[in-house]
Amino acid sequence: MDLFPTEKPRIAKKHGFRALKLVDVNLDQEFERRPLNVDYGTLNNGLTYYVHSNPRPRLRAALALAVNVGSVLEEENERGVAHIVEHLAFSATKRYTNHDIVKFLESIGAEFGACQNAVTSADDTVYELLVPIDKPELLSQAISVLAEFSSEIRILKDDLEKERGAVMEEYREIRNASGRMQDEHWTLMMEGSKYAERLPIGLEKVIQTVSSETVKQFYKKWYHIRNMAMIAVGDFPDTQSVVELIRTHFENKISAPGPPIIPLFSVPSHEEPRFSCFVGSKADGSAVMISYKMPVDELKTVKDYRDMLVESMFLHALNQRFFKISRGKDSPYFSCSAASDALVRPLKAYIMSSACKEKGTLQALESMLLEVARVRLHGFSEREVSFVRALLMSEIESAYLERDQMQSTSLRDEYIQHFIHNEPVIGIEYEAQLQKSILPYISASEVSKYAEKLQTSCSCVLKTIEPEASATIDDLKNVVSKINNLEKEGSIIPWDEEYIPKELVNVKPAPGYIVEQKKYSNIGATELNLSNGMQVCYKCTDFFDDQVLFTGFSYGGLSELPESEYFSCSMGSTIAGEIGVFGHKPSVLMEMLAGKRVEVGTKLGAYMRTFSGDCSPSDLETALQLIYQLFITNVIPGEEEVKIVMEMAEEAVRAQERDPYTAFANRVKEINYGNYYFFRPIRTSDLMKVDPVKACEYFNSCFKDPSTFTVVIAGNIDPSIAVPLILQYLGGIPKSPEAIFNYNRDDLKGLPFKFPTTIV
């Protein structure tokens, strides 16, 4: 076996996707129930297992025990017991006592939280481990731990008493404003079903008083081996030996004869919308959430998969509109998005949520409902759907190209979903073929029809969240009635599309040239000194087939500024970002980059100014064009953009002032560094001092002189293609007549702070 993959030219791999054969789309074709490319089966005692060999990360294994048991199975006197069982698992079992499991896992480098964890939901409980397997016995020991969880968790009175405190602490942590709001919303969403009263955290009274005998009865009744699956994905030399380990540790686990039937609990639908106005002085800010509930879709056939793609295109297109509205004049919200979410086993929901300014919830609600109604009346344009189609095609292309670099934890999660929700595992190769064959033939009218599912008469729940009450339930009802009437009258005008330029760079710059070139063979890197003074260092790597990372930095930052200029200049990146630092408005740039996988961001730090990002190797030219645009664009603040930014900043500051955790963190920072302007939290009074013109002028000067910047590029690049592009766009950045921010690293001014001299 070769230790390293054979090196292949990146362009050949790209053509590999483009030459990927289309498949005959038979909508009635059913997917295989058996998951693809995994050693899958059932032990004699009924345990299901999945074993897959995957080398990423090296010498690691991602393990899981999935149990089809959740809080919805609890009786009234057991509310919270499913979660308590999960806690007790790590406390003591037949072979391990006094948290020895946690100690063992931490001793081999599997820290609690990051590498060992468990989650209890309404329908299931999943125990997860990520363990090193560089020693043969470690995998066996880790599997034995999960085998203990399946039937031998120790539930004695002393064990339970020790664990009550930890469970109560978790209960208290989620009883903040956000937690209480989520609980209320869950109850409203699930009203009329058992799910409404079975939040996994349970009741305080049960947590504090439930007996060990009650917990044990729940565990023995529902934790049946036939309701479980053992999943192992890792850097295994072969899968059969891992199957034998599972057999060794699990086959002697015998549950009571006849597993209990897991009942299905329905959630009733309702024609009349439900309303909620949550008011909490500690709420993060004002927000609106609209949920449209419906039965979970089955994914059994190619038609089901096609419907899922149409749904995804609808949500992407709707989010594109929401983003443009959020950046428009007199925007009703700061941000808004729509998503599909599986809530419980029988139920999913389309959820639209927005964050808005104080006392702006009614305006936000009206805008959200209006946009969905607009889609129902006029639909999405072909241009909007083409943008989404290109986006989804780019995503599946990237996944296909990096199919050999998939992480074990991602594969493990796929198999968990297969066991718990019967989601088919068809393999990325076939999925890429399907999407490539289906996406071009999904029409704008098909995508638009999905708006019919988002009606307030279709099991809809509407909620506002406010720190101080301003909206009432009657107000929400009036908004719903208003939009319904406008839609019936046909009074909603079509969507107004803005002009989108075809090219990022209107006139390509004259390429620069290489003044000096150095090769560092010991690390495989090459350094280029360009004619405009910029230094570029690149290194070809094969970690990921579809990734190029880059960063550019220059010394000199906010520490050099006097206090009088600090607050304005520190807002430079935020204000300029809303206007457009790459020569185009963000909403326009989003469409211009449709189908491309490229991101570039900027940061103004204390000691450096940086830009960084990543892209697909085939989109390297686009990434370098964006960097070129960053240096030649002169950002000028507009009244509307500045208004949006300052309103968002003011709302964020108010939310922080309401949050007790932030207040505590700010106090610690104040004690550690003194109350100096750079370290203390921004106040609303500081925002009043911000000069938008000064902020943009500072930002422009930060990315103006290429001679002070060093750029590092690493990834799957072909130098014969990359170097000419580097010379064209980085070498083509005009050199400044005089140096700007020309600082030596050792001469930078330190930040002003003072350590505490006494105990506070």
UniProtKB/TrEMBL annotation:
Keyword terms of this UniProt record: Coiled coil, Hydrolase, Metal-binding, Metalloprotease, Protease, Zinc
Transmembrane region(s): none
KW Coiled coil (keyword) present: yes
Top-level taxon of the source organism: Eukaryota
Residues in Peptidase M16 N-terminal domain copies: 57-177
Keyword check for Zinc-finger: no
Protein name (record): Zinc protease PQQL-like
Organism: Hibiscus sabdariffa
